[in-house]
Amino acid sequence: GEDVEQSLFLSVREGDSSVINCTYTDSSSTYLYWYKQEPGAGLQLLTYIFSNMDMKQDQRLTVLLNKKDKHLSLRIADTQTGDSAIYFCAEVSNTGKLIFGQGTTLQVKP
Amino acid sequence: DGGITQSPKYLFRKEGQNVTLSCEQNLNHDAMYWYRQDPGQGLRLIYYSQIVNDFQKGDIAEGYSVSREKKESFPLTVTSAQKNPTAFYLCASGVAAPGEDTQYFGPGTRLTVL
After folding, report:
1. CB contact under 8 A, A97 and B101
2. What residues are paired with A4 via a beta bridge?
């Protein structure tokens, strides 16, 4: 069945790079997304990548897509305390619905 | 300002009462969605609507009902049949197109049933 998996927790020092990983199952996914959720808030769309791309960069964010391994990653350069949040990976399933991972909690230590 | 609003932010209800959560968008999106989020878990789809006057059940629709009488509005009713309604409820809207389902989320409503 459709499934998106993420590691649950990542802790980094302020100023370091963070890499959040995600694996998905639906090889027909055309769009893959990263969302950010701060405590008590809704989800904020961070970025997305189209399946014919290997990489997308947007300021401090870099998304890497390995279609062969069905692996998606989000790299945050120069991680700040304001980046502390839960990050969700999501894919568009073959039924057209978004399937979310369980979320990775990013803790940034000063 | 364009966006999605949900009200109220916090809601308390007694067990056995129905409660309706509001979701409004002015982004001119055709599709709207309701999700439930429990602590430490991802999002689970309750209901979605891709056009006015039409909606479909998601993965956990039991104990919930919706209506879509206007493009801008997609209220969710949590009925007394929902066994464990305390959760964080998120509404989203988007332009669902083939292969794409970019969704934009509201700020959420935290429902606590006492």
Report:
1. yes
2. A24
- Residues facing residue A60 across a β-bridge: none
Tokens 């464990």 belong to: B84
Could you tell me if A36 and A84 are in contact, meaning their C-beta atoms sit under 8 angstroms apart?
no
More confident residue, B95 or B32: B32
The tens digit of pLDDT for each residue in A46-71 reads 999 998 899 999 999 999 999 999 99
Asked if B108 lies within 8 A of A45 by C-beta distance, the reply is no
Q: Are B68 and B76 a contacting pair, CB within 8 Å?
A: no
Q: Which residues from B are below 8 Å from A100, CB to CB?
A: 42-43
| Cα–chain center distance at A3 | 14
In this structure, the dihedral spanned by the alpha carbons of residues B13, B112, B18 and B70, taken in order and rounded to 10 degrees, is 120
Strand partners for B89: B36, B109
